[in-house]
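Per your request, structure below.
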């Protein structure tokens, strides 16, 4: 199993479509076996689901995420845990323990005209309003 986290300086990055890197964790027999940071090389909203799928990712932990990206992840068979913040390593440990708290509808609509229901991911820093 592979788990990806939108990643910035040890923490879950708050906006899926703007993430510059993922930390990808490999899990074997329920235990972390390996983790590496993978730069996205400028991939945007639409390309990121393909980026993750091409690396064999099974699950994603992120902050806010748009509806289109959610659909692309679902089509790629990647399980989504959105609306997360804080330590990336801690969120992965919680996912593995079955205790991760996340929001099914942590969407970021500030670029798409949708209602804004972001998780706690630092809104305001990129111009969106609650």
């Amino acid at each position: 199993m592979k788990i990806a986290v939108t990643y910035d300086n040890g923490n879950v990055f708050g906006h899926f479509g703007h993430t510059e890197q993922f930390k990808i964790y490999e899990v074997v027999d329920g235990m972390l076996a390996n983790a590496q940071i993978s730069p996205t090389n400028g991939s945007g909203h639409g390309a990121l689901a393909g980026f993750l799928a091409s690396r064999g990712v099974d699950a994603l932990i992120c902050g806010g995420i748009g509806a289109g990206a959610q659909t692309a992840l679902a089509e790629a068979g990647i399980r989504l845990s959105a609306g997360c913040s804080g330590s990336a390593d801690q969120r992965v440990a919680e996912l593995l323990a079955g205790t991760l708290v996340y929001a099914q509808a942590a969407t970021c609509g500030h670029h798409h005209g949708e209602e804004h229901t972001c998780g706690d991911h630092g809104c305001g820093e990129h111009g969106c309003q609650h």
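The domain at 2-97 is CATH 3.30.420.130 (Nucleotidyltransferase; domain 5).

Regards,
D.
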